[in-house]
Amino acid sequence: MITFNDKTYTSSTEIFFEIFNDKWKLFILWLLINETKRFKELSQTLDITEKTLTIKLKELEHLHLIKRKVYAEVPLRVEYSLTTYGTSLKPLFEEILHWSQSYAKEFAKLS
To answer: What is the rounded distance in angstroms from the CA atom of residue 69 to the CA atom of residue 21?
Structure first.
């Protein structure tokens, strides 16, 4: 048994699916994989409410996958980037991209 975030799991695989239980977290990580982004940049790229984006960013920060840097400026500037552990997901994302391109080539119809 494994305890993570006050829940008990029978395997680490369950933890993976708990962390990545929605498309937004994966999409946010994908957008941050190569560069730091501001909240507004993320908000404009994603078809997501600001409230939901804020929640997902806090969840990813709590999971130690992204970091939030606040600049003491007026107006306030906040940037998000991957932590070292978040960056370790890059090879996984590259494999997923390769797989999805292959899948789309085989089964999707291009218009």
So the answer is: 25
Q: Check whether the bond before 91 is cis (ω within 30° of 0).
A: no
E strand or H helix that includes residue 80: strand 77-82
Sign of CA dihedral 12, 18, 23, 25: negative
Q: State how far the Cα of 23 lies from the Cα of 74, in Å rounded to an integer.
A: 33
- 5 torsion bin: left (phi>0), alpha (psi -120 to 50), beta (else): left
The residue with greater pLDDT, 103 or 82, is 82
> pTM for this structure?
0.86
Domains in the chain: ranges and CATH: 2-107 (1.10.10.10)
Of 100, 87, 35, 92, the residue nearest 60 (C-alpha): 87
* Rounded-to-10 torsion of CA 59, 85, 16, 100: 100
Q: What is the pLDDT of residue 8?
A: 85
Q: What gap in Å lies between CA 5 and CA 21, rounded to an integer?
A: 14
pLDDT in tens, 71-89: 998 988 999 999 999 999 9
